[in-house]
Amino acid sequence: MKKWIRGILFVCAAVLVMARAYRILSWKDTAGNYQSSLEQLYNTGNDLMDVVFVGSSHVYCDINPSILWRDYGIAGFDMAVSGQDKDTAWHNLLEVLKTQSPKVVCVDLYALTYEKTAIQGNVYRATLSMDLSFNAVELILKEVENREEWADYILRWPIIHTRYRELERYDFQQYELSVFGRGQTFDWTIGWGAQISEECLNDTTVGELGEKNLEWLENLAALSEEKNFELILFIAPYYYESDCREIYNAAKQYAARNGIEVLDFNELAEEISLDFNRDYIDGAHCNSYGAEKVTAYFGQWLNEYMELTDHRGDSAYFLWEKDLEYYEQYAQEAILAEAVSVSMEDYVQSILKGNNLTCIITLNGDYMAYSDDIGPVMETLGMNLQDYPDGGKWLYADGQLQFIMDNNSTDAFIYDLDGMYILRMENLSVKEGADAFEDIQIDETAQETIYNGIGFIVYNTCLHRVISRIGYN
Fold first, then answer.
1. What average pLDDT does range 263-269 have in this prediction?
2. pTM
3. Helices (H), 45-173
4. Measuring CA to CA, which residue among 272, 269, 290 is closest to residue 281?
5. How far apart are CA 181 and CA 346, in angstroms?
6. Among 335, 346, 322, which residue's Cα sits nearest to residue 288?
7. DSSP letters along 307-322, please?
8. What is the largest CA-CA distance in the chain?
9. What spatial distance separates the first Cα and last Cα of the chain, rounded to whole Å?
10. What are phi and psi for residue 425, nearest 5 degrees?
């Protein structure tokens, strides 16, 4: 009997260990940087999504459900995977429909312009992130061309067991955005956007839709009838040439025959004031500035033509509230970056007006040489420079002064930033002759500071990281 009990306990322990090991080694992103739209889907309660956007990186870069929630209380979600082709889009939508009953499904037509996911990493994102089911297996059989590899993708262990070489923090700790994020990414990087030529946009040539493209559109239309959702097709704003234009014209012709709405944001670019010098990361993706404009138009259109409920204030939709909170925190980072380019005073005002911001200010070296600029700013902060001729360190949290350390002090100061990371301030440069940048440490990592002048280190307690570091001299 005892051997039997020990055997059961051993099996249970082995299962628990394997489950934990699988969680650590498993593939965890569909958009890069540990963000997974599928994990976000699985963490969402049943029948909460009003509008689902399906597509590739064009979707998670260009459509921001935070805006839909903020402005209209629409519970939107981006079911988007990098490089998502037609097969992946179809099976991801089926995965959504297992637990959700959206009123509207908006599908990006970019997948009409290619047949297969071209990058191996995107194949992993498409096939390894989905919970194992008949739907997942069907996708694997379509997506993985080499039949000898099917078993590896289905079992997953043969692929993921080598990930131990690349494990990082969020393999062991849950990445918060993969729980409450709504599928979009946040990126205020200003790159470049290539504008489609007028000749291309005005081209009315109807190309060959192709058998597989037609089948995909017909299946989407049939599914909308079966599951009782409104199917909307759209084309994200990106650079393409005449061969793609002809395919899109064919898709629009199909849609017109079948009473399906198509929104072409390349044609709408001027109307929504897309700036090709500011609103793009690159020629294929909007940044968060551009996503604001694209999503604002989509939200206005949905609010006007679809009968959708405003869920703001409903506690069942707390994930959307949390997602909006994070979006606003990321936006603060972009605001600070812009303020830096204007003036030190604008930068400090942005810090003082921000939320969830902890700021360490340092005065080092011959900072008085820059008092013409520093003086008025220090007065705004309530700091008297004459009291600290040798400089010092100031700690502000949400605009309120928490602590001052003279540069001659020999004591260490410890401060809990957010329940996750600890700030340590100590004049090691005075006590031990160390470099000044070692005086301030967050999570035992030295934070670089300026040697002569005024320095700012801004930590966001919601995002759990430094969002701005700048020195003026």
1. 96
2. 0.89
3. 57-62, 65-72, 86-97, 120-128, 134-143, 150-155, 157-160, 169-172
4. 290
5. 31
6. 335
7. -----TT-GGGHHHHH
8. 85
9. 77
10. -120, 130
